[in-house]
Specification:
Layout (H helix, E strand, L loop, with lengths): L4 H13 L3 E7 L3 E8 L6 E4 L3 H14 L2 E8 L6 H19 L8 E8 L2 E8 L5 E5 L6 E2 L2 E2 L2 H13 L2 E8 L3 H20 L17
Parallel strand pairs: 3-4, 7-10
Antiparallel strand pairs: 1-2, 2-4, 5-6, 6-10, 8-9
Helix pairs in contact: 2-5, 3-4
Length: 213
């Protein structure tokens, strides 16, 4: 049976009025992480991971993605930042996946090109249900402050796998490590914002020709 415009409009009204909120609490022998997100928020962020640079990047996701994010994490930082960084990515990815639910009505795809001074980074993503990361950053220094820049990739591996997202990150320009990383998080935020928006022309429908994601 063909979906009518009236049905689509009704579905759109219902989807846009239903909060897409999720809370995930993940505990391991190395970390204790709780994440709450609201995909239809105003960009507020509370981040307490014990890793200042990661907190700064989470604020970028919230602010530029218009996603309300609360992240509280305790981890074995006396060893290094790796476990906490990765587990925050895992838990945030799980929260994204939970908040999206069956993904009916979402645009699904997002693409954004973000400049930050000399840095230029493109992020394209698809909430496809098929986890994949293609990562093309060339970060010239090993650290930004105390943050190990290798952990940027580990964060995005975790979030892609656990949100079931196909994620491509490409660096077009940039020589400053901080600028490259921050441009990446801003581009990711804006691409995510585009992808999770409700499509007024396909509200209530799975955004796939197969009928399932």
């Amino acid at each position: 049976m063909q979906t009518t415009n009236r049905q689509i409009n009704s579905n759109y009204d219902q989807l846009t009025k239903t909060p897409r909120i999720a809370t995930v609490h993940r505990t391991t022998g190395e970390t204790d992480v709780e994440v709450t997100i609201n995909l239809d928020g105003r960009g507020t962020c509370t981040a307490a991971t014990g890793i200042p640079f990661l907190d700064h990047m989470l604020h970028q996701i919230a602010s530029h993605g218009l996603i309300d994010i609360d992240v509280q994490a305790k981890g074995d930082l006396e060893i290094d930042d790796h476990h906490t960084n990765e587990d925050v990515g895992i838990t945030l990815g799980q929260a994204l996946n939970q908040a999206l639910g069956d993904r009916k009505g979402i645009v699904r795809f997002g693409n954004f090109l973000a400049p930050l001074d000399e840095a230029l980074v493109q992020v394209a993503l698809d909430f496809s249900g098929r986890p994949h990361l293609s990562y093309g950053l060339q970060i010239p220094t090993q650290r930004v402050g105390t943050y190990d820049t290798q952990l940027v990739r580990e964060f995005f591996v975790a979030i892609a796998n656990h949100s079931q997202m196909t994620l491509h990150i490409r660096q077009l320009d940039g020589i400053n490590s901080h600028h490259i990383i921050e441009a990446t998080f801003k581009a990711f935020a804006r691409a995510t914002r585009l992808a999770v928006e409700i499509d007024s022309r396909r509200a209530g429908l799975i955004p796939s020709s197969k009928g399932v994601l």
